[in-house]
Write a structure and sequence with these properties.
It is built from six helices and four strands.
């Protein structure tokens, strides 16, 4: 997925361990598909992965709170991630969701707002009647009461879906890092 970042991270791990840890990088979902990443790590196919939370919607309902739009206000992704990690550290029920893996980090996006391809969205009334790209789980349930129609589209298909009018909103969700 983000191979230059992963290669840099792998090199830094190897340098920090003075060569005791060797990282073999498998780019572009070549070892397993992103949607299968959590189960692949649990099953020992790999040792570490970045799990895209949007692909696992519904599986970790408490962790999904970090993906809700408008949640963090005007803070950066780093600040949102720090807040989410503190929540994880203090919430046994949230820790239980990830009990079968070693969680290295968990992150949240900066403030998540709808991003329309057709018209500006300035308030909740502006989304009425729109087709909103979303992930499964809690986000599928939040849009209908606001007057919008949720449409599940994978991250890799967002651009085409927005271009063809399948969705009016083209926001991308992010996930969490696990091993």
């Amino acid at each position: 997925m983000y191979s230059s970042t992963h290669v840099t991270w792998a090199r830094l791990v190897e340098e920090a361990s003075k060569g005791k840890i060797k990282v073999t990088h498998f780019p572009s979902q070549s070892l397993f598909k992103a949607v299968d990443s959590y189960d692949a790590i649990k099953g020992g196919i790999g040792d570490i992965t970045w799990v895209p939370g949007g692909y696992l919607s519904g599986r970790f309902p408490l962790a999904e709170v970090s993906t809700l739009p408008f949640l963090f206000g005007e803070i950066t992704g780093e600040e949102a991630s720090q807040a989410f990690w503190k929540l994880y550290e203090k919430t046994p029920a949230l820790q239980e969701e990830f009990a079968d893996i070693k969680l290295l980090a968990i992150h949240a996006a900066a403030s998540s707002y709808p991003a329309s391809t057709k018209k500006p969205i300035r308030n909740i009334d502006d989304i009425k009647g729109m087709k909103i790209r979303t992930t499964k789980g809690i986000k599928m349930e939040m849009w209908p009461p606001l007057g919008a129609a949720p449409v599940f589209i994978s991250g890799s298909d967002i651009y085409d879906a927005a271009e063809k009018g399948v969705v009016d909103d083209a926001k991308i969700d992010v996930g969490l890092l696990s091993t």
